[in-house]
Amino acid sequence: MNLINSRPIPRSHAVYTIAIIGFIYVLHTVIPMYSNSSFLSLFADEQTVGYIYMMGAAISIFGFLIIPSIIRRLGNYSVALWLILIQMCLFYGLLSSTSPFLITLFFVLQTAVISLIGLNLDIFLEVYTDATNVGTTRGLYNTALNASWVIAPLIGSMLVNGTENYHNTYVAGLFMLIPLFYLVYRNFPRFKDPTYHHYSPWQLIKHISKNKNWDKLFAANLVLQTFYAWMVVYSPIYLNKVIGFGWDEIGIILVVMLIPFAIIQFPLGRLADKKYGEKEMMIAGFIIMGISTIGLSFLHTNNIAFWAIALLITRVGAATAEIMMETYFFKTVSPRDAAALGIFRITRPLSYFTGPLIGIISLSFVTDQSYMFIVVGVVCLLALIPIATIKDTK
Prior knowledge:
By secondary structure, the protein is mainly alpha-helical. It has a single domain (11-191, 199-387), classed as MFS general substrate transporter like domains (Growth Hormone, Chain: A), CATH 1.20.1250.20. 79% of the residues lie in helices and 0% in strands. α1 (11-30) runs antiparallel to α7, α9 (212-243) packs across α15 (338-365) and α10 crosses α14. It is globular.
């Protein structure tokens, strides 16, 4: 029996298939994500954990700069399969190693590979997206990804189960890579790559700078991704070590916190297609995110419901800003622009440089760790400066 499709996959089928692949991709990523910093803290202090994330960011950025030329030569399908196989090896290395040096090395490399697989999925989706339904398609895709974000932290916390045995989360992540590999292998062997643009680094900078809205969007996206990165690295440690929640309680908080991503992005994407432009909703999202994050500094209770609701409000803003930026960008970019896609996604690994950097600097100046929420909230509000002058698509 031939496991590979002999005919190109239909457009509608492809979009739903990519959404399923994205769900599994995020599941393998997020199950260990919120305990990563605690896992690394077993042999490194908080500042060193920040430096490890920054190393991962640097390697990821380098990967985004070279991957467009590799995709152009080998094709998106082949590169995606090779990256998934490499990720399997790196997860196995994390599971089998006891050396802090090797664990750090494997952790840094898998951080980069995760980002690059995400770019492969973006290219698949962009090729199969109907230009008249960009917001709806991105909303559907993001809903699938974010449904995984909702359940994965709960799975991760259950696997850790109040102990310091974080290996179980990597075992689960490794097993998630098997269906991920199969679904890509099975569905896209006849994928037709667009004729990718080739740019030198200088040409790429000029290409990006020609679209003034992209510059502003990239700046705002960097702020959003910095918010995510800081929250992923420092909030679990804060909730565990400062507030005193157990990992089972943190898992519940994270599930509630991430619900907005699963329920509001699809309808907001449709609204952006059918009725409104993205700019106004983008601005509202950052205002909600910034003010509610500042408010976390004044929340000192160990009541789980208060923390779940407070963090949920921050994510209402983040989910709104995210889907509007995704919709805006993918309405204005061509599938052939793998390099521009890469630059847009560079904001994710770059945020794992800026996020820990904010944490490291803040820890040097503040006496109360809760004040770091004020710093992050103010940073979120700074995104309003570039967004205010973006030209709306409506």
